[in-house]
């Protein structure tokens, strides 16, 4: 009974807090600046709960599709007891409807998902890139990736060339944050400048400057293939490699273990110096892991719940479930995102396992995934 | 062993799946005579005899065991050596176990004709005269590249089925129950499983949804072996429900939101694949709009189950869409053994013929 009374008091207090703050308009630059300050400042459990409740209430009122989903789950700003109860939109929903909290206000940026899994791209609309910029820089800095002395190289096209790619945008933010100039984006108009990159790296290695090479997993595979016959490079101490995303249809597919082994050999770095960035166009924050079996950790303004889809609840420590993001920086669309990414919950983060295979019309069918899981089959070697 | 002896053994082992009379009918319909494999049969002024392939290589799908059982039964009737490539291990599938159980249940003389492999054996694949494969289009494409020019390759790729309700207002509880049987049998995983229910314009979805939801729940409750809902399956079902809620579609859910079935009214008439596992979409389309609504799956529609009567015009529309089977609702999942799977004569396709023109 006492627990129920406590929950009721907390819910009432939050309701009145929200009533006071619902006038907060996230379209206003000053409000957005204040929000960034709150996110980047200290966040304890109570503050987290309050901020999550406030953002939830704002998006609930502003995003019709999200409101419909919340109502179906019986969750409203009025009865929200905990941030853990905030309903999450399926990632797929970004491919089917507009999730944008600013009505007819023109978005300052639209990021398009790759659509490689289902062939249909999703769209993330941002009123302004200010919050995305701030948290992606600060997230990388707190993770230890961005140091002033580090030389950054990106295996993607530049954000000017691909304005709809959130990854290129984030790399562009990092480049500007470190005030780096010169050619840092090594893919241009579909052409990978392998030779120039190698030449630049060799020069920087001679100067013993730590280097960070960041790119998609498939871009690293192309790089490994191109440099297969060349001697390994010995990156200076403090250097790191950051890979993100998958391979689908972009290069030959190799296992994560094989990719890390080859990267470690090609660049003479330890396994722990190879990082994975786990993020997506539908979100503003990222999680990072070090080494092939490293745990992913989120910044303080974002949390991941590993959930059982059948119950919607978080699984126990050591159990597997699906990744659900609560991202307080995702102000302009929806803060809670349900992915189909499988992970194991651990006491200190989560271990990403991989994506659940998508369904396809498979009447009388052995899906492609069936074959892909059987390493014995020679059909696989395509 | 003669065809009749093999037939009797098979029918005795699995009388419900392969009734003797139906097996006899299958041989008569597709080979012209029950003994066509064993003796010369007079036909059109000559005598003919069917020759069975020595080796049939069956590549089994991971979604459903019944297609593998049927394919194997055909091979056994013919007395061929049957090599079965079993599906891989999957959290959400017990198909491999079900195929092995079926083989264990065969009498010894038939069991001797079967061997199983977990991996594709390319040597045996090349030795086989006939390769029968069930799977995705990608799988079929990969297999075709491995097949010799003089091998028969019988490929069953992607296919799906639909229900058509002629007069939803007059849908009887019995018909609703028949729809539920079609939807929930084999957990909706086969090519005969409906992925959508099409209804004509001006349908009262509230009333229809209630009827169907009631029937689905009644049928689900009565299922003795309810299909499992591992994480990967639960994820797809929940995703489909959440998407529908967010998009403002009408959703009917079971009591306590269990994951047995889900009924969704999607106002878009265009066919979209269901995540299966009991998720069925209600779509409304006028007859004249059906060719557009189903354009994306033209040529891949196996069966149309019908509650009511099918007009000649509608029949023509479905025929133009490549539909290869019509049946009454409730019978979609239980075709006769003479069914032309993907429009083919399953047994006749496997044999070759010897002609003797010197009739005495």
Describe the protein's architecture and organization.
The complex is a heterodimer of chains A (382) and B (360). Chain A is built from 10 helices and 14 strands. Chain A has helices at 2-21, 29-40, 45-62, 64-72, 130-143, 166-177, 194-206, 217-226, 256-267, 368-372, and strands spanning 89-90, 109-112, 123-126, 151-155, 187-188, 191-192, 211-216, 240-244, 274-278, 287-290, 302-307, 320-327, 336-346, 349-355. The longest helix of chain A is centred in the N-terminal third of the chain and has 20 residues, at 2-21. Chain A starts with a helix and ends in a 10-residue tail after the last helix. Residues 359-382 of chain A have low confidence and may be disordered. By secondary structure, chain B is of the alpha/beta class. The longest helix of chain B has 18 residues, at 205-222. The radius of gyration of chain B is 22 Å and the shape is globular. Chain B starts with a helix and ends with a strand. The interface between A and B is large, with 45 and 58 residues.
Tags for this entry?
heterodimer, A: 382 residues, alpha/beta, five-stranded mixed sheet, 10 helices, 33% helix, globular, disordered C terminus, B: 360 residues, seven-stranded mixed sheet, five-stranded parallel sheet, 12 helices, 34% helix, 21% strand
Proportion in β-strands of chain A: 15-25%
Structural class of chain A: alpha/beta
Topology pattern of chain B, helix = H, strand = E: HHEEEHEHHEHEHEEHEHHEEEHEHEE
Rg of chain B, rounded, reads 22 Å
Total beta-strand segments of chain A:
14
Low-confidence stretches of chain B at least 5 residues in length (pLDDT < 50)? none
Mean pLDDT of chain A equals: 88
Individual helix count of chain B:
12
Residue-averaged pLDDT of chain B, rounded? 95
How many strands in all of chain B?
15
Largest sheet of chain A at a glance? Answer: 5 strands, mixed
Mind describing the biggest β-sheet of chain B? 7 strands, mixed
In terms of quaternary structure, what is this? heterodimer
- Percent helix range of chain A: 25-40%
Helix coverage percent of chain B: 25-40%
Tell me the overall shape of chain B: globular
